Amino acid sequence: MLHVVCAIIVRQDGAVLACQRAAGGHLGGLWEFPGGKVEEGESPDEALIRELREELVIKVSCERAMSPVDWNYGRGPMRLLPYVCRIIAGEPQALEHAALRWCRAEDLPSLDWAAADVPVWQEYLLEQVS
Question: Is the Cβ–Cβ distance between 8 and 84 less than 8 Å?
């Protein structure tokens, strides 16, 4: 099974970063939490720190893991490993994404999300209201 990490990056004011996938590629135009594949020999949090440095030019601290999401987009099974993170250096830059958007937690449902990311923002929203 492919392991993929993603970050719910929370800003000081509580806004969450959403990233729009580039048009034309797999899941093009859909919104996602940034991240990527865990490489052999990496821990999930190491992979996430590397991916966010490569994709967004930021350094983050991984504060806590959330519930994994098992999904299959027709390319084989994957396990999405989400983490709540905070930026400790840099400002996000869209090197690989079509757009970046800071959203209030309650606005997350209004975006057109990649399916595997939906349970992630749903869990995050539930945590915010409890």
Answer: yes
Q: How far is CA 92 from CA 9, 47, 65, 108, 119, in A?
A: 10, 17, 21, 18, 24
Bridge partners (DSSP) of residue 7 are 83
Quick: pLDDT tens for 5-61.
999 999 999 999 999 998 887 777 899 999 999 999 999 999 999 999 999 999 999
Identify which of 4, 118, 113, 10 has the alpha carbon closest to the alpha carbon of residue 50: 4
Tokens, residue 86:
């905070």
Domains along the chain with CATH numbers: 2-129 (3.90.79.10)
Residues 79, 6 contacting (CB under 8 angstroms): no
